Amino acid sequence: MEWIRFGFCAFFIGLGVISILLAVFGVYKFKFVLNRMHSTAMIDTLGVLFIALGLMIANGLSWDIAKIAMIVIILWITSPLTSHVVSKFELEIHKDEVEDSLSHNLEDEEDYNGSI
């Protein structure tokens, strides 16, 4: 029974670490700052869930599960809020650059759709 619990624990923690590493790849892949923020905000939420599930399975039935669940809930509430606030600041501070980047991305998309 202990090996089965260890297997599930390792699976979920490994899945969480892999998803967070994919978020790091997304930060370097995208050029536009808001795309970078979106990739990290979505994946870190998922990564935290998987790592927390792995830790909950490793601890077994105890009060530690409630503590880990509360940490996950707090992170799920604060992570999207902070991403939203930082992206709003980015839009306000660099409004011209953002508009140029968005129009450039739309032109590239129209060229791509027109070539099909």
Structure description:
The structure is a single chain. By secondary structure, the protein is mainly α. Helices cover 91% and strands 0% of the residues. The protein has helices at 2-29, 33-59, 63-93, 95-114. Helix 1 (2-29) packs antiparallel against helix 2 and helix 2 runs antiparallel to helix 3.
Q: What is the structure about, briefly put?
A:
This protein is mainly alpha-helical.
Number of strands: 0
State the end-to-end CA separation: 55 Å
Low-confidence stretches: none
Share of residues in strands: under 5%
SS class: mainly alpha
Radius of gyration: 19 Å
Mean pLDDT: 81
Can you write the helix and strand succession as a string? HHHH
- The helix tally amounts to 4
Largest sheet: none
Overall morphology: elongated
- Helical amount among residues, as a percent range? over 70%
Task: Quickly list its features.
mainly alpha; 116 residues
Layout of secondary structure:
Elements: H1 2-29, H2 33-59, H3 63-93, H4 95-114
Helix pairs in contact: 1-2, 2-3
